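Hi everyone,

Forwarding the result from last night's run.
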Amino acid sequence: MKWKKYRLKTTTQAEDIVSSILIDLGVEGVEIEDKIPLSQADAERMFVDILPKVEVDDGVAYLNFYLEEVDEELLRNIAIELQQARAYVDVGDCTIESSETEDIDWINNWKQYFHQFYIDEVLITPSWEPVQEVDKEKLVVQIDPGTAFGTGLHETTRLCVRQLKKYVKQGDEVLDVGCGSGILGMLALKFGARYVVGTDLDPCAIEATHENMKRNDIATTDYEVMIGNVIDDIAVQDKVGYNRYDLVLANILAEVLMPLTPVILRTLKAGGIYITSGIIAEKESVITQMIQAEGLELLEVTREGEWVSVTARKRR
C-alpha cells in the first residue's frame, strides 16, 4: 500500500529529542537523515566494513515518518510539542514537507539495520537472528522493538541498564515508567528482581512489551504492564501503588522528570533507588538540583555521549 511520507527539518542537536516527541505522539517509526559520520561502534553494529564518506556536518537533520492517511490532529500536536521544545533545545525550522511513497513495506525495512549487540555482558538480539554457540552462556534478551522505543542501542537505555545492574537486588520490586519495548523491566527480572510493573502512554509499547515477554519466557505474574499517565492520573497512581518499590526506572526526557519525580517519591520505599535517564547534557544540573530539592540523596551521575543518567536514593 502507499503511505503519506512527512519530512521534518530539524537540527542534529535536537534529532534524538524530536524523534522521541514524534514517537511519544504515536508516530510508528522515524528515519533520520543527517551528515554526522558513523562512529566505529555504529559501523560494527551495522556490519559496515568501510565507513562511507559524507559531507561536513552542517547541523541539519531531516526526520522522515509515515502515516497511512493524513492525520491533521497528529500534525497539530507535533507542531505544538515542537514549539514547546524550543524552550530548551534548538529544534531548527521544523518545517514539514509531505509526499506519497511507493508501495513498499517501509515499516519492516528497518529490520535490515537492527542486529544483535552487547551491553557489557548482556546480548541483545532480535528474534530473526540466531544466538551463536559462543554466546549461549551469556545473558540473552530477545527484543523486537516493533513501533515502540527502546532496543538498548540508544545511549539513554544503555545508561539505565548499567545502573540497573549495579543497584537492583535479589527479590526487589521494580517500577519502570515509560517501559517502551519492555527491555529494562525484563533485564531487572534477569538481574534478580522478583516483580516488575511497567507503565506507558502508548498502546504500541504495551503490545510490544507483551510480545517481548513471550519471546523471553517471562510470565505476566512476574511483569505487569499497564497503560496510563502516572503523573496526573490518580487511578493509575493507585494501581501502581505507594511506598512499594525498591527501585524505580524513568528513561524519560528531563521535562517529564520534573513533574514525575514527586510522584515517584510516593511509590518508593524508604531507602529505595531512583534511576533516571533521557537527560540531555545541558539539563544535568537542572535535574540534579531538582532531585536534591525533593529530598532525595544524590548517589551518582553517569554520562554517555550527550546523555546523562542520575541515580538517587529516597532517604530513610
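The two ends are 58 Å apart (CA to CA).

Cheers,
N.
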